[in-house]
Amino acid sequence: MNTSVSKTGFEGYLKGIVERSEKLSYYPRTRGWGFVLTWAHRVAGLILILYMFFHIYTLSGLYHPARFASKMKFLHNFFFSFLEWALAVPVIFHALNGTRLILYEVFGVRDDNLMIRQVFFLSAIYVLTLGVFILMGNQQVSAALFWVMLTIAGAMAATILYKKLWHTENSVLWKLQRISGAFLLPMITGHMFFMHLNYKTGHDVETIIARMSSTGIKLIDFALVLSVFFHAGFGLYTIASDYVGDKRFRGGLAVLIVLVLLVFAYAGAKLVFSI
Ligand code: HEM
Fold first, then answer.
1. Is 258 within 8 Å of 230 (Cβ atoms)?
2. Which of 255, 40, 220 is nearest to 148 (CA)?
3. pLDDT tens digits for 179-226?
């Protein structure tokens, strides 16, 4: 895959900064930009998994609404709002770079330089727009309409990929990894946007409980839990397999990954159906 990026305009300026620093340019020089992007994708995926654990832990506070409300009050300051916004960086980078990989592997879109530029360009637009929405904090949208539209988009993306991919010789888990990625693309990026349209939507205990009590939202949240945990679990296993040669140790690690993720997936599903 040719991932050498030409030096023009703003992009060339950014690349120049990296190349001027001996430390920053070490991996692009010695291993190439493809290697750097692969690692950035991995690191972003791992950050998302850590956040997902933290997210389920925080949401479990909904069993005690008063405690949840005081937790939200504690987190309602510039520092945590900034971290919430900063989370958009790994979210959108992983989502769009994952989409680039799917377009490359499955649809044969080989113009990699253009695709990489688009990943960075669209990611910047997403992160900045989200920042503007967080600062305004006064947008309203119907939760039912928003989630029906996103779920249709996710289901369509997953179905198109399923039709294109299912008959190929890749392993079933590999195919499901890509298909779940296609489903998650609108769901996760939309989820983040939705929660920041105004402060109450994502942080007010009564608003959250009222929304989560709807059967439609429960089904959508459950689909999200299943696909995120499968996708994350197989992702973790793929990373582990790259470093663990011993077959038995790898098997043990797979069991450990499945167990840990099952515990969190169970906590997430229980939350969805008992609120
Ligand atoms: C939002 C839409 C998403 C898309 C389009 C997407 C796409 C992908 C793709 C195509 C891969 C395979 C990369 C490869 O094998 O080279 C992948 C790997 C991975 N994903 Fe996602 N993903 C998404 C969301 C998530 C989420 C929400 C998480 C975690 C909660 C996550 C965690 C991971 C991990 C840990 C890997 C393994 C990284 C690796 O093998 O290098 N992804 N993703």
1. no
2. 220
3. 999 999 999 999 999 999 999 999 999 999 999 999 999 999 999 999
Number of structural domains (the chain) is: 1
Phi (first) and psi of residue 198, to 5 degrees: -150, 165
Instruction: Tell me the pLDDT tens digit for each residue of 65-89.
Output: 999 999 999 999 999 999 999 999 9
Query: What domain range includes position 268?
Result: 24-274
Task: Report the predicted TM-score, pTM, of the whole model to 2 decimal places.
Answer: 0.93
Beta bridge partners of 138: 198
Q: How far is the CA of 99 from the centre of ligand 1 (A)?
A: 9
CATH number assigned to the domain comprising residue 234: 1.20.1300
Strand segments (E) across the chain: none
For residue 4, being part of any structural domain is answered with no
Distance 158 CA to ligand 1 centre (A): 14
- What amino acid is encoded at 254 in this protein? A
Atom of ligand 1 nearest to the CA of 38: 41
CA distance 199 to 134: 8
Q: Is residue 7 part of a domain?
A: no
Quote the CA–CA distance of 11 and 111 in Å, as a whole number.
17
